[in-house]
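Observation: inputs received (chain + adenosine-5'-diphosphate).
Thought: call the complex predictor directly.
Action: predict_structure
Action Input:
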Amino acid sequence: MATIVSIGSGKGGVGKSVIAANLAMLLAKRGKRVVLADLDVGGADAHILFGLLNPLRTLTDFVERRVERLEEVLQPISAHPFLQLLPGTGDTLATANLPYAKKKRLIRHFSQLQADVIIADIGAGTSYHALDFFLMADRYLTVATPDPTSVLDLYRFIKLAAIRRVLSAFLSRDAVSEALSDRDFSSIDDVIQAVGETDPNAKETASRTLQGFQPNLIVNRVSGKSRVNVLQLKKLLKEYVGGDLTMLGEIPDDPAMTRAVRSYLPVVEFEPTAPASVALNTAADALLAELARPAMIPAESAASPERAA
Ligand SMILES: Nc1ncnc2c1ncn2[C@@H]1O[C@H](COP(=O)(O)OP(=O)(O)O)[C@@H](O)[C@H]1O
Ligand SMILES: [Mg+2]
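Observation:
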């Protein structure tokens, strides 16, 4: 089974797609069979980063059942034998009628691809679709820049993802799920209280689900004067959702990145010794180390530990 790493962020334009593309390339270079999957709900563009302007097939062909097997959508990229792309398109994932179970099924197809790692570019934002796809992965990676607005949006994203993760632990249970499905929650406490009304064991389940929530973070476009107070962010996260944040790397703001995008190549290929490329290599090693650790507990198993065994 392939390990799925999802990449999300609160805000667009922070560098998710370029980081996804470069990490995918670097893991392939380190001998992993990698699929870069473009699940960006709003603006799929990973194919463009590789100069593939009009992909022959896209994820839409699979979602709309024009092709039977997900493998048929895979495209080779950058002439690297271990790297393949699953191009996404336009708004299909946002507009397709995809209830939770169907999303889950789609992700199961992903994990059954012949690959070691699937890097899934989820796109920005906190729509249910984006959060669900983000959370269905085995590992979570978030990206933010040091801008105060980006950090704030990251915090919001992580908070809503944590809430959604707790909710999804109950989504398969009918009574609870019905009580929760059409409501908006602003805090974990709200969720736990609502769940507690229908399920007395909810509190324990929720806290187990939250402990298993361990997003990783890459800070992108770091420059001398702009740094994120990562310790502060970790502390907030711990206090608010109980989960842990692991720092995977800091990528400097580097004009080589823009030159690489304009040349339709990952910067690690285009200018391997540029500062951004060096930092991306360090981040890829950190990601590999992360992948070697035991996986997080899936939300559904946290809800019923007997099934997790
Ligand atoms: N470290 C960096 N240094 C300089 N420019 C960057 C860096 N990271 C990203 N960019 C620029 O930001 C643009 C947007 O990045 P992209 O990955 O498309 O963002 P997202 O997927 O989060 O919307 C890129 O095309 C690139 O020009
Ligand atoms: Mg993007």
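Thought: report the result.
Final Answer: Residues 16-17, 40, 45, 121, 123 surround magnesium ion (ligand 2) (CB under 6 Å). Strands lie at 3-9, 34-38, 75-76, 83-86, 117-124, 139-144, 216-222, 246-252.
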